[in-house]
Amino acid sequence: MTRIVLGTLNARYIHTAFGLRYLYANMGDLQPDTRILEFGIQQRPIDIAEQLLQQQPLIIGLGVYIWNVAEISAIVAILKQVAPEIRVILGGPEVSHPPDLPDVANLADYIITGHGEISFPRLCGQILSGQAPEQKIVSGETVTLDALATPYPYYTDTDLKQRIVYVEASRGCPFKCEFCLSSLDTTAKPFALPDFLRQMDNLYQRGARNFKFIDRTFNLKVDNSVAILEFFLRKMTDDLYLHFEVIPDNLPDRLKQVIQQFPAGSLQFEVGVQSFDPVIQQRISRKQDNDKTQANLGWLRQHSNAHIHADLIAGLPGDTLEGFGRGFDRLVGLNPQEIQVGILKRLRGAPINRHNDSYRMRYDPNPPYSILSTGDISFADMQRINRFARYWDLIGNSGRFGATLPIILADQPFARFLQLSDALYAAGGSTWKIALKRLFELLYTGMTNTLQIPAATVKQALESDFARSGEKGRPEFLAVKEQPLAKRGMANKRQRLLNPA
Prior knowledge:
Blueprint (H helix, E strand, L loop, with lengths): L3 E7 L7 H8 L8 E7 L4 H10 L4 E5 L5 H14 L4 E5 L18 E4 L5 H10 L8 E3 L17 H6 L2 E3 L2 E3 L15 E3 L2 H13 L4 E4 L8 H12 L7 E6 L6 H7 L7 E8 L3 H6 L6 H14 L3 E8 L6 H14 L3 E6 L18 E2 L7 E3 L5 H17 L9 H4 L4 H16 L7 H15 L4 H15 L15 H14 L3
Parallel strand pairs: 1-2, 1-3, 3-4, 4-5, 5-6, 7-10, 10-11, 11-12, 12-13, 13-14
Antiparallel strand pairs: 8-9, 15-16
């Protein structure tokens, strides 16, 4: 009998719900009565509600995040209409910071704030034994990491073959960057390394090859970082892929020596630059040595095969359009393979919210609560940055425009790409669902008419990129006008009559 269902909605099928597996691992005697059900945000809420109810549960626990809060709200509303007797328990970042709670909190029976590995099983036991607590909000209890059962045995074989395997070698973050919820942590605590590596070996032996570390500061404790990298280096295969989030200004020589040994395509570093402006960094309590950050990014590009995914945030308090552009230009100069132009989001509980009034920070009231305007960036300009970010993903980060992108960014990268972005939107009217061939056509027009790049130069670069894309057909600007076969045949016949051999 499934008395307890653990569920959530992932943004994509390839993702796995790490938090649900942690809860399941720590259910104790209730684990045989518990089942995990994962869904995608593309599925209809009514269909998800139906699948949840098919289990005939007494308790449903749902993980609520910034990307699924709207869908979770719709699901809970349906559940409470057709099965009000089922106890609905919510957990996750979106409901962990009362009184700043989404509307769905009003429909839930209970809310667990913070970590739930201990508090969720206890609450379920109380409910099932008829001793449900009166208070609706339960503060999640934290325990030492060695007291937690690990989630890794509960990845299925399908997970290991088809999806991302999330792992954590440490929990927490010692830094206080105000835009991040990890700033509320007191410090970072590592899991016991020998046991962690045994768990990783078990996953590897079962077939896992795609590991995404969710540690906020993977390279904080260099001894552990080196040991983990060396562990995977000994198991290197063509399909092994590792993702780490690293501190950009902490890359000692011991770590560099190991990084250099990884082949291309096996290592990705997510580098949170966020801002190069020292005034803004101080304002949001971010400690970052910009010179070391620049030197380390340069070293990674020149002396390693690591794929660099560098993050930059638009809309931070006090930043301007021009200031963000200067940071973008500096990052472009360091040549990471990807630049993620992130738009600031209002995370519930994040300390950055203290600046809302003084810097006139205005956020979309609908998830994912993106910044709409600030005292220094107008709504119109923030919309331009949003479109810039989308077109940058399509053109700058896609890897499809290796010959074309350097021409666009030849001088003043931010100003030129923003100008191009404005032109692309004016011509196409959308940043979504743009067919690849259509994108090439829009680029040709925007680069020649708006950026005033010679047509021959643009055509040569786009033709080279299009040939590598594997796309069928040809964009209009590359199409060669030829006579129909019948007319060509008659023309050839007349030519032979006029000029017999």
